[in-house]
Amino acid sequence: MRDLLKFFVLTYAVTWGCFITVAAAIPANTALGYSLVLLGAYAPSFVAVLLTALREKENGIRALLRHVIQWDVGARWYVFAAFYIVAVKLAVALLLRASTGQWPRFGTTPWYVIPLAVAFSTPFQAGEEIGWRGYALPRLADSIGLRWASILLGVIWAVWHLPQFFIREGDTYGQPFLVFALQVIAISVALAWLWNGTRGSLLLPMLLHSAVNNSKDIVPSGTPSASDTFGVHASPVAWLTLVLLWIGAVYFLARMPGTLRAGVGERRC
């Protein structure tokens, strides 16, 4: 577990150092601010590759990175990764329509742009997924089991985002962090289920991660001009999204095996 602790400490140090600097002193819409945001966002994978290189050398790096291009999985996994969050958001809209008689606010991005954005963004999710699902998840799962690992990693991953809620140029500025964190934990469970079901592929979690980032505003959860980061005054869309994500998470937890599938997470602490 020592390597895993090093990973979390170094990742937080780099990310929080960058994000807090941007929140406090350097606007994210400047060249330096944007560069710091990118460095902070990609810190999980930078740290994972560094620690792997120090401990396992070139062979370890190859073993870690080959999962990024592990594409030969069943088509159903691609469908799930691409459309899970879309299904959740559309279900939220239908439930609100049925219960209130009114449709919620929909996003303004044309629907045909979203698949292009998801496809374009997917490779960039390697900046997080090599670290979270490639390095940390198999080591946690080996120690405490996949179910608890998916939840614990979700907590760590959620809190890692906290400084972003103080970056004025970001879309999470002032939004209720608790609701966001609970959603992230549920998404972490879905990502772990997907990762294990595809024998450790990182490409499919990267696709789901990209779909979450680029499809979540089909039905936006954010409250305009929010300023209550540590409160619970979220929109009905946010709360209902949270409920549906956790219904999914409970299902995935029930379907997860007690041990990892063969061929998943070869590298251990």
Topology summary:
Elements: H1 2-24, H2 31-65, H3 75-100, H4 113-121, H5 126-144, H6 146-160, H7 177-197, H8 203-215, H9 236-255
Helix pairs in contact: 1-2, 2-5, 3-8, 3-9, 4-8, 5-6, 6-7, 7-8, 7-9
> Per DSSP, what share of the residues sits in E-state strands of 2 or more residues?
under 5%
Secondary structure: number of strands: 0
Give Rg in angstroms.
18 Å
End-to-end Cα distance, whole Å, is 6 Å
Q: Can you write the helix and strand succession as a string?
A: HHHHHHHHH
**Overall average pLDDT:** 94
Question: How would a crystallographer describe the biggest sheet?
Answer: none
Structural class: mainly alpha
Helix content: 55-70%
Tally of individual helices: 9
Assembly context of the chains: single chain
Question: Rough shape?
Answer: globular
Unreliable residue stretches: none
Structure, described:
It is built from nine helices and no strands. It is mainly alpha-helical and 269 residues long. Helix 1 packs antiparallel against helix 2 (31-65), helix 2 (31-65) crosses helix 5 and helix 6 packs across helix 7. It starts with a helix and ends in a 14-residue tail after the last helix.
